[in-house]
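User: We ran a pulldown and think these components assemble together. Before we commit to crystallization trials, I'd like a predicted model of the whole complex to look at. Sequences follow.
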Amino acid sequence: MTSWESLYARRATRMRASEIRELLKLLDRPDVISFAGGIPDSALFPARAFKEAYSEILSGPEADRALQYGVSEGSPRLRRWIAEHMKSLGVDCGPENILVTSGSQQGLDYIGKLFLSEGDTALVQWPTYLGALQAFNAYEPAYDRLDPGTNLSADDIRAKAAASDGKVKFAYLSPDFANPTGRTLDLAERRRTLALAEELDCALIEDAPYECLRYDGAPVPALLALDCEAAGGIEATRTLYCGSFSKSLSPGLRLGWICAAMPVISRLVLIKQASDLNSPVLNQEAMARVAERVFEDHTAGMRATYKARRDAMLAALEAHMPRGTSWTRPEGGMFIWLELPAGIDAADLLTASVEKAKVAFVPGRAFHPDGTGGNTLRLSFSCADAEKIEAGIARLGSLIAETVTATL
Amino acid sequence: MTSWESLYARRATRMRASEIRELLKLLDRPDVISFAGGIPDSALFPARAFKEAYSEILSGPEADRALQYGVSEGSPRLRRWIAEHMKSLGVDCGPENILVTSGSQQGLDYIGKLFLSEGDTALVQWPTYLGALQAFNAYEPAYDRLDPGTNLSADDIRAKAAASDGKVKFAYLSPDFANPTGRTLDLAERRRTLALAEELDCALIEDAPYECLRYDGAPVPALLALDCEAAGGIEATRTLYCGSFSKSLSPGLRLGWICAAMPVISRLVLIKQASDLNSPVLNQEAMARVAERVFEDHTAGMRATYKARRDAMLAALEAHMPRGTSWTRPEGGMFIWLELPAGIDAADLLTASVEKAKVAFVPGRAFHPDGTGGNTLRLSFSCADAEKIEAGIARLGSLIAETVTATL
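Assistant: Here's a predicted model for the assembly, 816 residues in total across the polymer chains.
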């Protein structure tokens, strides 16, 4: 028998299954109303537009090229569309500032690979997107807390990073309707975060997969747009913007992008080349067509649907949650973050919730790199209709009320 | 201006552009006959079968699922086909032994990530597939030479690895019609390599993208098949088999696989989850259909075409190469490896060849981790017809003859 464990790299000790993904496998029960999965509603995908695009490409003279290897940077037509999209967000850039990735998840993996040596520090929010921690963990960083709401001392952060035998390489955050909290950074918080990155002379990673899902309130400029404005152009910026088609058109094609200054993009292209050569040309060509044709109308329709679901969930929470619980009121995205009274553990609650209330959610501890957050949970409103949301939140509210009473 | 260089991880110093990819960009000139690109002929892709498969999936009730996130392991239908295919190669396994990857290149990246800490040793052949070195380099290994043709001393290898501050984690090789040499390991060499891996108690990485492209000679069992036989089943083996659809059906969908014992597969699934969540479900579903329907007939047709091209190139080399040159006679794949008289540098020759002879190839030094091999070059016969092969090799032969004379 091969002694596999003794052959693995040190980093393997930090690789663990996503609790959420494991959870989702268990929760695929028809009698349970699930607010657990953080995925788009597949009934909303523009399947007809994709069908036409694939048919066009595979019927025409382009078929051979679409089925061949491609360039690591990404297909020119798709990079052009993405660059125009970034311009609409206030980022003056060209296709040369875009690397196409296999979802923004791959962008996070590449960013970890490019910046992190063992012991280097990554600043992340508490709680934060679990998949980012999983991607970065492979490169064995230390984590320190990024809290854009408070005054942060660059000196303290630097001293702590030096104690872990590395330096601060980047600050990572999701400024719009973050997974898992649904929170959006205001302009002052964004400026403060940029100033901190400048003081630390580190990179800033802006993870923006939900950008197109704003339901109300005024858009706040992207960190990269603010950085461009202050620095006098994208080539002088320190922000890497990770975008995604997963929440706007389809996650199934696994397409996202990184937008940044050219020296960084050219390094990331080398990483792409060594890791999977290129993302499928066929998918990139199909996505370019679908984006050109339906992006605006399609995302407008999705926003209307998701807005109604968010409103239904906020109304149901207001109606059914007992005193002592609180929750966020997101302006977009897919998530509401709920805080239980201290002392109630959301992981314990989940067991009772699935068995008795027939409602599923994600306990919040996994989103905290320091293992705190036991009394928090994430609710996703993206995949349930208003009726199910009302019924599910009512049942969950009763269960929490009972649990609070029993704990008193 | 951000001081990017000071922010990069140590590993970034080992990331370099593929000389070959850079070369290919320059060589895309209509007046040049190119034997440089190691890619399949795109005129041979089963485009109609792919068109039908995509149309079917996107027209039916499966569309929503195909456009959604999927499981990291890969789509069940595709894993089943791959497991059956592995059985046909003498490997008794099930879908649980298969991880679907984005091309076998991604498999190599994941294998580096799983096994290599900085300073660990990877045994590789000299010359070897350049993309493997690029994938492994990100994990900062030391390389030592694997030479299945000679008697290898495990003690010497171990001592050298300890001197580089690590241990031998795996031996990597491509046993059938290797890129770049076209060479195939015979049964004795395979058994010797397996015995060495056993003695070193390390993993064995079998890179087999050309497996389906044998034109003559009897197939030699896969290393994984020999390992299964000796160990008494796949769960007791130490071999990770990397397969690919890129040379059989299409590289454009970016689909390959790793076949190995379950404990390794489950670790690799965690890596996949953290690095890009999953390969596109739509592509996996399309590939499963196309493989089920046309794999046997399609690869038979491709073999006939490539065999004729190989024969044309061998005949042309026989007719036109001056004394002092020698070359391999591959039983399959896409490559012939040519050795020039010592003292003639293939990189210098390439400049003259493109300018005067209008013929392109890949100089061999890049395939050698130790920078030797200056008098070698790789010729690919996959993308040129017999007429072009005869004309191109004739021109190259004359140039080499002139160069040899001038050097005397």
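The mean pLDDT of chain B is 94. That may be worth checking against your pulldown data before setting up trials.

User: Thanks, that helps.
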